Amino acid sequence: MRCTPEEALWMYETMLVIRKYEETMVKVYMEGKLPPHIQKGLAFDIGSGPVPGEMHLAAGQEPVAVGVCVHLRDDDTVVGTHRPHHFAIAKKVPLQAMTAEIFGKATGLSRGKGGHMHLFDPAHKFSCSGIEGASMPPACGAALAGKKLGRDSVAVAVLGEGAANQGTFHESLNLAGVWQLPVVFVVEDNGWAISVKKETATAVTSNAARGAAYGIPGVDVAENDPLAVYEAAGEAIERARTGGGPTIIEVKTHRLLGHFQGDGEVYRPKEEVSGLRELDAIPAMAARLRGESIADDDLLSEIDERAERTVAAAYEFARTSPLPEPAEALEHVFV
Ligand SMILES: Cc1ncc(C[n+]2csc(CCOP(=O)(O)OP(=O)(O)O)c2C)c(N)n1
């Protein structure tokens, strides 16, 4: 399965939007969090600034999101993780409403109540959660619903390699296998679960191999390459759409930033990150587009400028949007 030039350009532009989005967030998130607001004993004041709360960025993991979502339609479901922005953007969640949500604004996807770990967009069938492994059961549910309704929609559950050691992983694989659900489990193996290295948490080298225990095909994608993900995901999604059942794919990907913003990363050697940056998939993809005459320098700078404008407009919208009225605090929530 080979991607078309249009798909390659979409994947490249979407990776650029994601990266620029995350790099902007690195700066915006720290606004107002450092002294003089600092509280004694804390590295910074997590509640201050335009983006309150924790922040988990996915810079470096763009190839996984674009290589999977390029195959998806609006009526396909994606359930993401606590590190959700790359998949949300690739699933075409509107960037302005998503950013406003992250800023806690009334114009956000959930009127500012969800924040960055709880993006919810029924129109594009995207949701996520701060609970590890929690993507899998709802994705199985969406897949079961599609199957029962006789539709050819599919569901994708995204999870980290750390989450793959939880009970819910095994229960979901088991049900997906026995019911032959149209679901694809995408494991993002960035090597770390906060400060815990993969090999210290599991004796299994590839979570894709765990599929065999449940009668599910497993595919290992060893490089953080959008085209390698494209191929593996394309086959899995086609299999799911045509009644062939579930697949588990594990992609070896790269977390370029800390687990959360403000993470001192004392557990990870600095050289690891500089090495990963040299393998960055975005400039590699630009070189490939140039090499295959899919894009010249003019087109690449046009794409770059458009991505820049898209991201800037999203942050501008979020900044200038109103906060919810205090009276709304108890609306749309269980009390
Ligand atoms: C059920 C549950 N247990 C623990 C946590 C705390 N926690 C948040 S992120 C994380 C590690 C996640 O690692 P991984 O699944 O590899 O994803 P990554 O952060 O590397 O993308 C943990 C343990 C949680 N959110 N949910």
Automatic annotation (TrEMBL):
<dbReference type="InterPro" id="IPR029061">
    <property type="entry name" value="THDP-binding"/>
</dbReference>
<dbReference type="InterPro" id="IPR050642">
    <property type="entry name" value="PDH_E1_Alpha_Subunit"/>
</dbReference>
<keyword id="KW-0560">Oxidoreductase</keyword>
<dbReference type="Pfam" id="PF00676">
    <property type="entry name" value="E1_dh"/>
</dbReference>
<dbReference type="InterPro" id="IPR001017">
    <property type="entry name" value="DH_E1"/>
</dbReference>
<dbReference type="GO" id="GO:0006086">
    <property type="term" value="P:pyruvate decarboxylation to acetyl-CoA"/>
</dbReference>
<keyword id="KW-0786">Thiamine pyrophosphate</keyword>
<dbReference type="GO" id="GO:0000287">
    <property type="term" value="F:magnesium ion binding"/>
</dbReference>
<dbReference type="GO" id="GO:0004739">
    <property type="term" value="F:pyruvate dehydrogenase (acetyl-transferring) activity"/>
</dbReference>
<protein>
    <submittedName>
        <fullName>Acetoin:2,6-dichlorophenolindophenol oxidoreductase subunit alpha</fullName>
        <ecNumber>1.1.1.-</ecNumber>
    </submittedName>
</protein>
<feature type="domain" description="Dehydrogenase E1 component">
    <location>
        <begin position="53"/>
        <end position="326"/>
    </location>
</feature>
